[in-house]
Amino acid sequence: MTFASLITLTRIALVPVFAVFAVLYSQSVQTGAPEETLRWLAIITFIVAAASDGLDGFIARHFNQCSEFGAFIDPIADKLLMLTGIITLSFAPWGENQWQIAPWFATLVIARDIIILGGIVILYYLKRRVPIRPSWIGKTCTVTQMTLLAWVMLKIELLPLLYPTILAAIFTLWSGIFYVQHGFQINANARKAI
User: Fold this and answer.
1) Crossing angle of helices 136-153/36-62, nearest 10°?
2) CB 78 within 8 A of CB 50
3) Domain contains 143
4) Mean of the pLDDT values across residues 168-180?
5) 108 lies in a domain?
6) Lesser CB count within 10 Å: N end or C end of the chain?
């Protein structure tokens, strides 16, 4: 096991820690006595976990610690962190409606990921080679989802929460369509090669 992979596993271990702090903060908000320390512990835990994504990649590349296990577990860790953040903040509000991710957005994200994962499973079943490479649309989707999470956790009042939610929803839907089309293209190319 490489050091880079250990960092990735640490990110996975931090996911439930974030969830616990986030839910405890939500409960304190609902009692009318918000424990801001819990909110900041959740935020710090999330930031450390998110930052570890760049750190494990840097170590893997610069110290020749790339491994099949690392390539497999890293996107799983990223997805666990993102989904946990979105789901937790949609069902454990951090205040009035302004400080809660809309449940319909969480449903959209989950549906997109299930469809993409289902497509990958089908392509593997058909013995198609599926390169796991992020695209610009996938990266933009991640950035807009992270922005939405930060908007709620930091309680940004610059614009109503609806605006970052709609932006993240557009890119979530767009990236889902892109990856489905890409899957069909992989299958079509493989059939032509036979």
Assistant:
1) 150
2) no
3) yes
4) 96
5) yes
6) C
Domain tally for the chain? 2
**In a shared domain, residues 51 and 130:** no
pLDDT at 97 over 70: no
In a domain, 183, yes or no: yes
Q: Report residue 119 as tokens.
A: 């497509």
- pLDDT band per the 50, 70, 90 thresholds, residue 194: low
Computed over every residue of the chain, the mean pLDDT equals: 90
- Same domain for 120 and 45, yes or no, is no
Q: Is 191 exposed, middle or buried (0-12, 13-18, 19+ CB in 10 A)?
A: exposed
For the residues 97-121, what does the mean pLDDT come to? Answer: 92
The candidate with the shortest Cα–Cα distance to 25, out of 103, 92, 96, is 92
Q: Specify whether the CB–CB gap between 84 and 22 falls below 8 A.
A: no
In the prediction, which pLDDT does 110 show? 96
CA 63 to chain centre: 26
Domain that holds residue 21: 1-74
Residue 14: CA atoms inside 13 Å, Cβ hemisphere, count?
A: 25
Q: Write down the residue that tokens 């590349």 correspond to.
A: 61
Domain check: are 109 and 189 in the same one?
yes
Question: In the predicted model, what is the mean pLDDT of residues 171-194?
Answer: 89
